[in-house]
Amino acid sequence: MRKLLPYPILSLSLLVLWLLLQQSLAIGQILLGAVIAVLAARAFAALEPQQPRARKLGSIFKLAALVIVDVMRSNLAVASIVLRDRHRQQTAGFVVMPLTLRDRSGLAILACIITATPGSAWLEYDSVRGTVLIHVLDLVDEATWVDTIKNRYERLLLEIFQ
Amino acid sequence: MSAAILHWSLLASQLLVGLAMIAATYRMIRGPRAQDRILALDAFYVAAMLMLVLFGIRIGSNIYFEVALLIGALSFVGTVALAKFLMRGEVIE
Amino acid sequence: MSEVPVWVAALVGGLSILGAAFTLLGCIGLARFNSFYARVHAPTLGTSLGSIAILLASAIYFTVSAQRPAVHEVLILVFISITTPVTLMLLARAALYRDRAESSGDVPLQWGEDIVVERADAPSEG
C-alpha cells in the first residue's frame, strides 16, 4: 500500500482536480483520474522530497481562518493607501525580523502567507541567523509589525510543525 | 429585469478591469527598470484572466474558463522564468 | 443568457463590480507607487479580493443558471493563491539582488557585507 500510494493526500487532491476539470463524475473519468493521480504521486516520490510532519488539525483550521480574515482586512487597508494623496505614501520600509521557526515547510507557508497578504512582502530568509527581511507598505511602527507576525502566525505554525 | 442588471453590471466591471489593464500597461511602458515591467506584466495577466471570466459570465458559457486557467498558468511560468533570468542571466558585476 | 432570479443577478453583478474595482485599485497602485518594493504589494489586491469576488460571482451564476453546482472556479482561485506569492517573492529577490549588485537605491545590505568591513580594520589584534 505504502509503495503503491506514497502520498495519499496528494493523489486524492489530484483526483479531485481532474474531476473538477472534466466537470463530470462518470465512472470512466474517475478511473482515468485515479490512474493519473497514482502515477503522478509515484513520479513525485522519485524526487524524494522531505516529508513535512504536520500536527494539530485544529491549529491548521485556525491559521486558515486567521489568514482569510487578515487578507480581507489588509485588502481594504492597501486600497485606502492607494487612494491617498501622493506625499503621504512615504511610510513604506524594510523590517528585519528574528524567527524561532526553523522547519522548512513552516517557513515556506509563512512566506506565502506574508507575501499573499497585501501590504507585506517576504524578501529574504537568512538561515544562519534565522532572520527574515520583510518589506511593509504601511510601516507605522516596526515593533508592532514584528509582534503581529510573531504572535499571530509564527505561534500557530510552531504548534503545527514542531 | 435580471438580464438588464447582469448586462450593465458586467459591462461596468469589464470596463473597470479594462482600466486596470491600461494602468498595468502604463507601468509596463514607463519602467523604469526590468523588474517593474515584469511585475506589471504579471498584473496584466491577472487582469486579462479576470476579464475572460467576466466574458464567460456574460456569454453564459463555460468555454472561457479553460482559457482563463491557461492564462493563469502561463503567467506563472512566464514571470518565474523572467525573474530567474534577472537573477542569473544578466551579469552585473 | 438564461434567465436567473433578480436577487441572483444583483448578487453576481455586485460581486463582479467589487472584484473589478479592487483589481483596478491594485493596478492604479502599481502605476502610482514610487518605488519598486512598494509596487510589489499592489498586484496582490487583484489576486486576492479581486479574484475571490469575481470567481465567486461566476460560481454563483453558473450554479443557478445551469441548475447544478459549478465549483471549478475554485481551481483558478487555488492556483492563483499558490502561484502569486511565489512569483512576487522571486521577483522581489531578483530586484534585491540587482539593487545590491549595483548598490542603487537604499536597500538593506546582505548579512556578511558589513562583516567584511569590520575585518578590514580588525587585524591589529592578531
| Secondary-structure element order of chain B, N to C | HHH
Outline of chain C: elongated
Query: What is the terminal separation of chain B in angstroms?
Result: 65 Å
Helix content estimate of chain B: over 70%
Compressed to H and E, one letter per element, the order of chain C equals HHHHH
Query: Which structural class do you get from the secondary structure elements of chain C?
Result: mainly alpha
- How many domains comprise the coordinates of chain B? 1
Q: Would you state the CATH class of chain B? A: Mainly Alpha
Overall average residue pLDDT of chain B: 87
By DSSP (H or I, 4+ residues per run), the number of helices of chain C equals 5
User: What percent strand of chain B?
Assistant: under 5%
Helical/strand content category of chain B:
mainly alpha
Number of strands of chain C: 0
Please identify, by name, the CATH architecture of chain B: Orthogonal Bundle
Looking at the structure, what is the overall shape of chain B?
elongated
Multimeric organization: heterotrimer
What's the alpha carbon Rg of chain B, rounded to whole Å?
A: 17 Å
Topology:
The complex is a heterotrimer of chains A (162), B (93) and C (126).
Chain A: H1 8-22, H2 27-45, H3 57-83, E1 93-98, H4 104-116, E2 120-126, E3 131-136, H5 142-161
Antiparallel strand pairs in A: 1-3, 2-3
Chain B: H1 2-30, H2 34-59, H3 63-89
Helix pairs in contact in B: 1-2, 2-3
Chain C: H1 6-32, H2 36-39, H3 43-66, H4 73-102, H5 113-120
Helix pairs in contact in C: 1-3, 3-4
Walk me through the structure.
The complex is a heterotrimer of chains A (162), B (93) and C (126). Chain A has 162 residues and is mainly α. Chain A has five helices and three strands; from the N terminus they run αααβαββα. The longest helix of chain A is centred in the middle third of the chain and has 27 residues. The mean pLDDT of chain A is 81. Chain B has one domain: Helix Hairpins, CATH 1.10.287. In chain B, 88% of the residues lie in helices and 0% in strands. The longest helix of chain B is centred in the first third of the chain and has 29 residues. Chain B is elongated and about 55 Å long. Chain C is mainly α and 126 residues long. Chain C has five helices and no strands. In chain C, helix 1 packs antiparallel against helix 3. The interface between B and C is large, with 59 and 61 residues.
